[in-house]
Amino acid sequence: MNALIFAAGLGTRLKPLTDTMPKAMVPINGKPLVQILIEKLKSIGVSEVVINVHHFAQQIIDFIEANDRFGIDIRFSDETDQLLETGGGLKKAARLFSNADPILVHNVDILSNADLLGLYNEGVATGTTTLLVSQRDTQRYLLFDDANRLVGWTNIATGEIRSPFPEIKALESNCQLSTVNYQLKKFAFSGIQVFHPSLLPLMDTWQGKFSIIDFYLSICDKVDIRCHFAPQLQLLDVGKLDTIAKAEAFVQQQSE
Fold this sequence. Notes:
Blueprint: E1 2-6, E2 27-28, E3 31-32, H1 33-43, E4 48-53, H2 57-66, E5 73-78, H3 85-94, E6 103-107, E7 110-112, H4 116-126, E8 129-134, E9 140-144, E10 150-155, E11 160-162, H5 166-169, E12 185-195, H6 212-219, E13 225-229, E14 235-237, H7 244-255
């Protein structure tokens, strides 16, 4: 079972902590975020982990090696020369796995009660890239049809719609997400997904840094990319200093 941890971000919203450490090393109840996630992944059977690194990369590498890589195969995708964003980062990291199994992709600064094993098994069973989503309030949503297939993206604040389907893109002018033929569902992406390696050849023309969502929106009219809706999902983005205390309470609650 494969997993990719996105840990290369600069963590600018966590300054001044990230002036001296990467966000992956920010401690929650005495444990760095990256350790919390690795232990969770290991508990569900993940045997191969790739971590992409950039900001204070050596701190992460030294910590993982000092802990004997937590007893599993952990490798590093080095982005110290250039941050590749989610799409470019995934493309580079995918080649470091020893097999062609689906990849559970998880941001290092996301804490949740998600059933990661259930999500992974669903992605394996369907043979599709599967995005964990919820009805969390935000301004930007992914759009799915009644079969839970990705068909677009919208910013509800501006009314913008992005989609490779002309009939869905046309809804933008009417500021609506439904027609006789389409009853679209809008969900918030969690930053957690199961990526199916069959999509890698479609990335061949994508170079350098790019967003994985931009990539998905460019191909969702050609391949199935599905959502897994988790109605009881509790998710915390440890992105600002005022979320540290909330994160500590959340982790404590999950361990009880």
